[in-house]
Amino acid sequence: MPLVFVALVPLLVWMQRESTGPSSVAPLEGRGRGLGRVAWITGIVFNAFLFWWLVRLPAKAMTHPWIIFPALLALALYLGSYVALVGWLSGFIRRRVGWSPLVVAPAIWGACEWLKSSGPLGCPWGNVGYALAEHPAWIQGASLVGAPGLSVWIVAVNALIAGAITSRRLPARVALGLCAALLLSLPVAWGHTRIRAYQPGESVRVALVQPNIGSEEKWDTAHQEKSMGTLARLSLEAAQSEPKPDLIVWPETALPFYLRLEGRKLDRLYDLVRTLNVPLLVGYPDATLSLSGGVITHNAAGLILPRGVIAGQYEKIHLVPFGERIPFQGVLPFLGKIDLGQAEWTPGTRPYVFPFGKAPFGVLICFESIFPELSRDYGVDGARFLANITNDEWFGPTAAPRQHADMAILRCVEQELGMARCANTGISMLVDPVGRVAQRGPLFREAVIIGEVGLGSRTTLFRLWGDWLTGLCLGLVLVLMLLGWYRPLRRDA
């Protein structure tokens, strides 16, 4: 929401005043030393409220249900540490280089969000840029700088407002206020212009099947016939619509068995797709033998054609830490023996663009939609739209399904590609290449959503250059850190 442009003002005002301090002997020597501690508390509180839905996860899915509360605390402490890093770096640069926290805050925040979002524990969830996802005109800058760049923009506006509040001179207050207003309004005005100028081109007609099947029923073999019946019934409804869809999409692991290893069930699926006479994109587990004789399992998605073949398969690359795989097993193999109820999938190795006539597409499974890099890979490799399949049933009736869906919207704007998002229990939706949600399904209800998904026809700066603005932020922070490291402590005012 637009309130994000002032949400950080209290923290930044406090950081600025704490780092300025009273005039005294060696005025910069002790300034800013407490910034990290207070920033960490801020980050802990924010992330504890952001992820409170973790405690609503179904206990039956966990080996040790009691661990969920310590896990929420650990997550808040861990993610809050990146806000602490913002405070610590701001204080260090103030003491060593003399730059105000308000001057360096946008670059430091961008660098720290990149660190938080990277690696096996990477978690962009909660990055400030995603607060604008439901306001199309406000997010068009993502086509230039991506969602990470929106965070830098938001923090810069907050910093200017904080500067206007803390400045002691009226002309400076007015100037900073005007700069904040311009920095806020000009990108939004450009966003409105960009949306008005957008001309829909080619499209593909997609039907999303939202079966609303609970996890207890879905993974119970005794209920597989019922689950398949629900999916088949809704798909027949979709296939009989006019005009007929070009593609039907089922959610992540809609088929809760190793599809390619169960010949009878695979043949039944082929028969269904022949009856539908529409290609089907479906999520399912997959298993293959490794060279050492072991079994490799994947969270996969396959494209089933009416002629009775799997035309292509993608294996999920970015697995959910602790939910789908315990991280760092390559370094510490014993971690693989820890049982927290995780699926222990093997990560895929490469993105795969499904050939589909004029509309080749890339698939994002579950929370892969919150990472810009994979969507960019698809755009570079020639995908013309994105399909996101997920099973958000685990979240329950909390804010998490909406948060998850909102983050997917930014992928469309970054690449100027439409998206078909199919969720087991919602939120299923169709999004156009400039981030407008054309249709959105309900939560925890069966639904069939049919509509046009716009095909990308132009590239974007973000697709060409990647996360270039964060690169500049990292470079600036690194230079200032090196200057501060090798420069004696400043003692002048």
Automatic annotation (TrEMBL):
Q: Which ranges does the record mark as transmembrane?
A: 38-55, 67-93, 137-162, 174-192, 468-486
* GO cellular component terms, A-Z: plasma membrane
What this protein is called in its record is Apolipoprotein N-acyltransferase
Entries under Gene3D superfamilies matching the protein? Carbon-nitrogen hydrolase (3.60.110.10)
GO annotation terms (biological process): lipoprotein biosynthetic process
Function according to Swiss-Prot or TrEMBL: Catalyzes the phospholipid dependent N-acylation of the N-terminal cysteine of apolipoprotein, the last step in lipoprotein maturation.
Organism superkingdom: Bacteria
Its family remark reads: Belongs to the CN hydrolase family. Apolipoprotein N-acyltransferase subfamily.
Q: What class of enzyme is it?
A: transferase
